[in-house]
Amino acid sequence: MEKTGPDHYIVHDGTVTSCELPHPKWQFNAHHVVMELGHNAVIYRSTFRVKGVPVLFLPIATHPLQRQPRQSGFLIPNLGRSSTKGTILGDSFYWAINRSTDVLLGAEYYSQRGWAQHALFRARPSDRSFVDLRFFGVADRGIGTPKVSQGGQEVHLNAQARFGDGFRGVANIDYLSSFIFRLAFNEVFTQTVSSEAISNLFLTKTSPGVFYNAAVRRYENFESTNNADRIVIFHAPTFEYASLDHRVSQSPLFLSMDVAAEGLSRSEPSFRTAPLVGRFDFVPTMSLPLLFRGWSLRPELGVRDTFYTQRLLPTSGVGVASNDLTNRRALEASVEVRPPSLERVFNRGLLGHKLKHVFEPQAVYRRVVGVNNFPNILRFDERDILSNTDEVEYRVVNRLYSKKSSSSSSNCGTVSEIFTPDPLRSAEDSPELDSALGQQKDEAVKAVPCPSGPEARELVSWELGQKYFLDTTFGGALVDGRRNVFTTTADLTGIAFLTSPRHLSPLISRLRIAPRAHVDAEWDLDYDFKSSRISSSTALVNYQLGRITFGGADVYLRVPGENLVSNNISSPLHFHQFRILLAYGTPNKRGLSGAGAVGFDADVGFLQYSAVQTSYNWDCCGVSMEYRRFALGAVRNENQYRFSFNLSNVGSFGNMKRQERLY
């Protein structure tokens, strides 16, 4: 080593490693290194060796030497293999613009498909704001015979800023050029099968009990792999005001308000509104909360006035948007009754824990009248599905709590009484007695502490609910033989069930179980008594025991109503899939770890997705390997082979990205 200045050094034939000596698992052998402390090191003619075997030669490389290093330059190249993309070779350039802003630009070459580009821009202008912008695109040469291009672009923007006086701005934008591009090139299965692209841009101000919002929203749903077969709903601009219940002067009445003025548009293959449809929605609501001996009674009365600059003219299909003005008026009344909760404490409990069972009943009578033009209302969002209704809703919630039984002495908390001097003791008694009593009291407090009681934990929560409809046609809004979605049905469950007049809704069951911090389960079930079958079921289980992690999901849906057809493709009447993840260890600790995941379509008996990943880490490096398979019909049938070789405090080589790992 040669020192040529206060912070300047030159190293000849040096070696760099972060492994334990004298037998490092990897090392860089450099012919010539120029170091400037506090800046960086420039390495010339270096050879990367694993167990003494040369693996990679770099004519020149740089390494930052700052306390918080952020050095611009090219990253280590990545290499991979795919059955549909071919050999994958790529690299990225990292640009550290300043301490709070950086850019990552990269490209990959797919030998069988073409070029892929990706970019990431990150900025932290202040401790109350951030900007993350991601881009991914593929210039695809096509696949199959004849060649069919599946290329496209996807952009994600996530930004947020908090201003003074309660203002907050958020931008969450998702642009997708085509659904087939996401199916073919996205590497995360849950994102791959999502057909929606949702964007929100808003500025809000909140103060106690009041909410102001200005927003632009865009919703896009691809109905098939045909890029023209999509639904686009646009909200621009949107101005909203809402207030929580607040007392009206000195009266027992409470008033809440919901006001929205919006410009809207909707387009789909067989339907299109005007580029800007005006909608003004005004909803004041008055309530009178009453309490009597544990009973809660809440009558509520509201009016709703919604004005549209276009109306829907029903036809045999979706309908036609007409430039005629329309006004929807409704009167909403409800009475909510909550009896006192019933509870019982089981002192014997289970495994040293006390148990407490709580039973919470609730009933609501609701009536909406005045909506006599439901077929003429354009559908943009939840504000447009209000219908007449005359109904009773009833729910019960069972909760089971657990609390660890106290093991402290029964004398805890009575020490001051035991050692308080006798009030009849003479004032002439010696001060030594006071000192002795004080010492005994201090020792007793140390021997019998009074800790704060253990916190209660909710082990089980089980909610059952149902509605009884007195008006089975909902004021004439229901169309027999088709799926109908109204405000009253959407408030109960997200699964459509109205296809004909009926009194009883499905029974909804929402079960949550969390006996310990590392164990939780959830089961949401809708059972339809009219058809005597389950209409939907979603079960989730997560369990962790030491280094073993298990996760499972089972999703079942029976599509109600007519069999919809899009581009001559019939939608399935059933949907049943399950996914399983099993993992051992963690990829960032020494030793062996691994994980496996599958996604199975039970309706067709087909494995849509599978992946197996394993890692082994030493003291200074680690290696990870993965096999992944996508089977998404004719769009994608791909086998991927990935690996990553990680060097402690240096970087990684390979094509396994952190955000795409199984665990």
Give a description of the structure.
It is a single chain. With 663 residues, the chain is mainly beta. The protein has a domain at 2-64. Helices cover 6% and strands 60% of the residues. It contains five helices and 40 strands. The strands form four sheets. It has a 26-stranded antiparallel beta barrel. A hairpin with a 6-residue loop joins β22 (311-313) and β23 (320-322). The protein is globular and about 90 Å long. Residues 408-448 and 563-570 have low confidence and may be disordered.
Helix and strand topology:
Blueprint: E1 2-5, E2 8-16, E3 26-36, E4 40-50, E5 53-64, E6 73-74, E7 78-82, E8 86-98, E9 101-110, E10 114-126, E11 129-140, E12 152-162, E13 167-176, H1 179-185, H2 189-192, E14 196-207, E15 210-222, E16 230-247, E17 254-268, E18 271-272, E19 277-287, E20 290-292, E21 295-308, E22 311-313, E23 320-322, E24 326-338, E25 342-350, E26 353-369, E27 389-404, H3 415-418, H4 431-447, E28 457-469, H5 487-492, E29 507-516, E30 519-528, E31 533-545, E32 548-558, E33 565-566, E34 569-570, E35 574-584, E36 591-601, E37 606-617, E38 621-632, E39 636-647, E40 651-654
Antiparallel strand pairs: 1-2, 2-3, 3-4, 4-5, 6-8, 7-8, 7-39, 8-9, 9-10, 10-11, 11-12, 12-13, 13-14, 14-15, 15-16, 16-17, 17-18, 17-19, 19-21, 20-21, 21-24, 22-23, 24-26, 25-26, 26-27, 27-28, 28-29, 29-30, 30-31, 31-32, 32-35, 33-34, 35-36, 36-37, 37-38, 38-39, 39-40
